[in-house]
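SEVERITY: medium
COMPONENT: batch folding queue
REPORTER: lab tech (J.R.)

DESCRIPTION
The queue accepted two submissions in a row. Attaching both inputs and their returned structure tokens so the on-call engineer can compare them side by side.

ATTACHMENT 1
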Amino acid sequence: MKPSDVLIKPILSEKINKQTEKQNRYAFVVNRKANKLEIKKAVESFYGVQVQDVNTAVIPSKAKSRYTKAGFINGRKPAKKKAFVTIAEGETIDIYGTV
């Protein structure tokens, strides 16, 4: 799998910003078929940092419904995989510059 196919987008939230400040940890939505080694190589090649640790979590799909004029509409949100990447001390990733 190519490194450009592994990383889909960074996750930008208050919880991740706190982890970035305290633990030097960043989060990305990644391809569901990507393993930890591929994620590590992709982050190192895209951002030029030394990755220490990669943790992953698979988020299952969810059923969603909403009420409209035509009645209830039922659907599903797709499943996704998140990767939590810890990088070496003193290094940073400029995520806001790449958004």
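ATTACHMENT 2
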Amino acid sequence: MQGAPDYLLPLLQLSDSALPTGAFSHSLGMETHLHTGLVHDEESFANWLTQFIRIQLVHGDGLAIRFAVEAETLTELFRVDRELNAAALPREIREAGVKMGARMLEIAGSVFPCKDLDDYAAALKSGECSGHPALAFAIAGKNLGVPLAELLTTYLFSTVTSLTQNAIRGIPLGQNAGQRVLCAAHQEVRDAVVLIQALGREDFGVTAPGLEIAQMQHERQRARMFMS
């Protein structure tokens, strides 16, 4: 009988929404829309999540993972890090990437060590790179031999799960409503994975101005549950 691929359990561990990267503290702009009433129930959150997946997640983290996997040198990898950080115009989003990236890198490096993760950690320490969870995840996945489509699917769905859990607390939504949103997001994630593999370098960093503005407004929101 054939067993599961060797990379499957490490991949599940790194993509677990309970992984202590601090994702539970970040709404990535959703909380601003909670405050204004744009997001207020299951349907409105599902619509928000769909747009987040199709625009910011695909053209930011998703493409960054693909480019990191395709990188043949550290120079190419570090370029992805700098471009991803530069594309995050809202301060809180940049800081969220740096903080969660450091935690993802620390966890991946201690549990699934490899030279590429060590090199990335050294670049963060020297200030050559800023750090981002998508890149730490991509480097670990590449060294574990995870196929690109599976790597993208697990990262995207892990992000979607974290945001849904935060919506359950923040709106609040019922647990069953959260599961319905996640089920409906399956096709969105599948479509996103296909799209990421077809996009070009010029598509890297495309975002929605309305979401960026909401992410910037969150910095001055009076009452907050989340850090971003």
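NOTES FROM REPORTER
The chain is about 70% helix and 0% strand.
No errors were logged for either attachment.
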